[in-house]
Amino acid sequence: MTNTLNTGGSDAPVKKSHMNRFIQSTELDTRLLGMLGALALIWFGFHIYGAVVNGFGAFLTPRNLWNLSVQTSSIGIMACGMVLVIITRHIDLSVGSVLGFCAIVMGVTQVWILPELIGFEHWSIWIITVIVGLIAGTLIGGLHGYLIAYHSIPAFIVTLGGLLAWRGAAFLVARGETISPVDSTFRLLGGTADGAIGSTGSWVVGLVGVTTVIVSVSLDRRKRKTHGFALRPVWADWFIAVVGSAALIGAVILVNSYYWPRGIVRKFADENNIVIPDAGLFISYGFAIPVLILVTVGIIMSLVMSRTRFGRYVYAIGGNPEAAALAGINTKWMTVKIFGLMGLLTGLSAAVASARLGSATNALGTLDELYVIAAAVIGGTSLAGGVGTIYGAILGAVVMQSLQTGMVLIGFDAAIQQIVVGSVLVLAVYLDNLYRRTAK
Amino acid sequence: MNDKDKIDCAIKPLVDMRNICISFGGVHAVDHVSVDLYPGEVVGLLGHNGAGKSTLIKILSGAYAMDSGEIYVNGEKANINNPRDARSYNIETIYQTLALADNLDAASNLFLGRELVSPIGFVDDDAMEAETRKIMGRLNPNFHKFKDPVSALSGGQRQSVAIARAVYFNARILIMDEPTAALGPHETQMVSELIAQLKAEGIGIFLISHDIHDVMELCDRASVMKNGQLVGTVDIGDVTDDDLLGMIILGKHPDEQ
Ligand SMILES: Nc1ncnc2c1ncn2[C@@H]1O[C@H](COP(=O)(O)OP(=O)(O)O)[C@@H](O)[C@H]1O
Ligand SMILES: [Mg+2]
Fold first, then answer.
1. What separation, in Å, do the N-terminal and C-terminal C-alpha atoms of chain A show?
2. Taking the model in full, what pTM does it have?
3. Topology of the domain comprising A31-196+288-439
4. What span, in angstroms and rounded, lies between the C-alpha atoms of B216 and B234?
5. Which of A198-202, A219-223, A404-408 has the lowest mean pLDDT?
């Protein structure tokens, strides 16, 4: 599999700086490094700005970063699907409205219909609700894909129509009402205090992650050896394993140092007959459930893109649709599947977003399409098609959300936020063009 | 008429395309054309740009659906509705445009649509790269860019990837649409040798070429097209360069002169 973002080819020019040699040995994606650098700049920038201007740097706090992770989830999940759509030279402008529609459908299902049938707060309500939401999203996405592939209506038009139509449909289904309260188990998907897995759970997740990193680095080394392909230097393998593990452990420590607010702790202590010690009772949030959902989606989608025929065909269609068709790939059916998958992820995202809100409103997801597209594009997905990665899109979502959150924290008003987000999107594509030109 | 000797020998044609028609919005790109191909034979398809050669072979390779006509493979009526069908008849094609996905590497292109997968259904990139190294070692030993996307390759290297793809899967019927267009003299020579070798293995080849010299050297018969119609099919042994040129330019069968 070729990752066209990876420029460290074997026949690069001979003169190499230390940095070049480092990047080549570790085979790190230079683009990924650039994005991490930009992210660090944004995070420290907002923190320092807050510290200097407002006397308090609120960005680099466990509380803010934890919230940032939760807020990124909904956009991030959809960005994973948008990558496929854009790689195959399409666009989906409807995801925000489809999210709103799916949220309303799920709200109606769990608040109006299911309690009548199986009883209020029945254990299965959240499961049925999520399944209904996923099916609704998949069908809508599939319908879009069908119109695009089999009736040759451009994706731009189909999904622009969808942008209006599904928002209207969401209003009609609930007659504009806000539907609440959602099922209490369903709410956990949104990542409130209970919707996080706590300190122990987070350590388990972190250690599983560390094990995976180490095992995959050594498996990769062994595989290269058996095939006689070039090996990375041992120090480079160690570097990747150590940095990867450190990042995971750092994330665990971070989410575990964000504690429940005192009021909730007191209520929790009362309900469970716990005496609060004098030093105070500290209960960690740990990883939020929506974040784990995003990570799971990210891992699965990365595997799909790099290890399955489906993923290979997505790249092939993006690279040369005609060649893909001549190679016997059913490109029309692929388009239906890609948009169906986009819809599925939008349905999942709708579950997360409405669980977080605790209700379903027909305005949920407004403007999300722009953030999702921006996340994918900032993450290196090329609008010309054929190029893009899942991890890039997720990182792009983090960048977008960081900008948004940071500006709220330091008190920029909404008008300025819009101007900044819009400009950053344009700037990102400009820089991306520059990067690609020099990478060649 | 030249088929007659062969039918007498009771060898069935590998491919028999009869009365093929296709038009694009009123343009008769291929108009009642019949061609055939026998095992171990190279048939040249000649004609000016726009004569309909590529369109004709794209019908055989499943890229286009013909408006009317019949295709027989090994004497049996074949239903070719898409490229997959054609591949199932062991028809492999090197397209004039090469039909490569530029963003993928050589191995991904070679196996596109026919990926090798591991037992759990994941694409096996290592196995595909190893196979690609083997076949490229045979076809183009100078090829080393296995990790790069094919957009980073030279015209000749890209062409050798397209050729490798057609040869790798044990074609019985091979379609080559201007396979040497992007090649230098040395590489062209290698393709000529490859054609001779495949022919010796009993593979039937449709060779589209602009180079009369190549056609005279490599082909057993030549079918000439003009404006979507078949001018005629001749045995190469019976004609001269000028006869062929006359057919291409004037659209006249040498017998008519
Ligand atoms: N997909 C298509 N749509 C419309 N016209 C086409 C298409 N493919 C080929 N044609 C037309 O068919 C004719 C034959 O083209 P082609 O088969 O490419 O010729 P050749 O390969 O002999 O140069 C040309 O007039 C061309 O414009
Ligand atoms: Mg042609």
1. 19
2. 0.92
3. ABC transporter involved in vitamin B12 uptake, BtuC (1.10.3470)
4. 11
5. A219-223
Q: Cβ of B148 and A2 within 8 Å?
A: yes
B45 lines ligand 1 (CB under 6 A): no
Residue A1 CA to residue A423 CA, distance in Å, equals 34
Say how far apart CA A78 and CA A346 lie, in whole Å.
Answer: 6
Q: What is the largest CA-CA distance in chain B?
A: 65
Instruction: Extract the tokens encoding A124.
Output: 């299965």
Residue B64, C-beta contacts closer than 8 angstroms, at least 6 positions apart: B22, B55, B58
CB A95 within 8 A of CB A369: yes
Name the residue with the closest Cα to ligand 1, atom 4: B24
For chain B, which residues score pLDDT lower than 50? 1, 3-4, 6-8
Which amino acid residue places its CA nearest to atom 18 of ligand 1?
B54
Q: Is the peptide bond between B185 and the residue preceding it cis, with omega within 30 degrees of 0? A: no
Residue A188 DSSP one-character state = G
Cα(B162) to ligand 2 centroid in Å equals: 16
Q: Is A9 on the interface with B (CB under 8 A)?
A: yes
Q: Does B112 touch chain A (CB under 8 A)?
A: yes
Q: Name which residue sits closest to atom 10 of ligand 1, judged by CA.
A: B29
Backbone φ, ψ for residue B203 (5° rounding): -80, 140
Q: How far is A3 from chain B (nearest CA, A)?
A: 8
Residues 373-432 of A with CB under 8 A from B: 386-387
Cβ neighbours for B2, distance < 8 A, ≥ 6 positions apart: B221, B233, B234, B235
How far is the C-alpha of B212 from the C-alpha of B218, rounded, in Å? 10
CB A308 within 8 A of CB A400: no
Q: Of B179, B163, B253, which is closest to residue B215 (Cα–Cα)? A: B179
* Tokens 């025929």, residue located: A309
> Do B148 and A320 count as a contact with CB atoms less than 8 A apart?
no
pLDDT at A6 over 60: no
Q: Rounded to an integer, what distance in angstroms lies between the CA atom of residue A256 and that of residue A251? A: 8
Q: Considering only CA atoms, which residue is closest to atom 24 of ligand 1?
A: B50
Please tell me the distance from the alpha carbon of residue A87 to that of residue A67, in angstroms, as a whole number: 30
What ipTM, to 2 d.p.?
Answer: 0.91
Residue A205's contacts (CB-CB under 8 Å, 6 or more residues apart) are A197, A252, A287, A292
CB of A2 less than 8 A from some CB of B:
yes
Site to substitute for ligand 1 among B22, B23, B24, B57, most atoms within 8 A of C-beta: B24
How close, in Å, is residue A285 to chain B by CA atoms?
A: 37
The pLDDT of residue B8: 47
Q: Is B97's C-beta closer than 6 angstroms to any atom of ligand 1?
A: no
| Confidence class for position A14, pLDDT limits 50, 70, 90 | very low
Ion ligand 2: residues, Cβ under 5 Å = B 54, 96
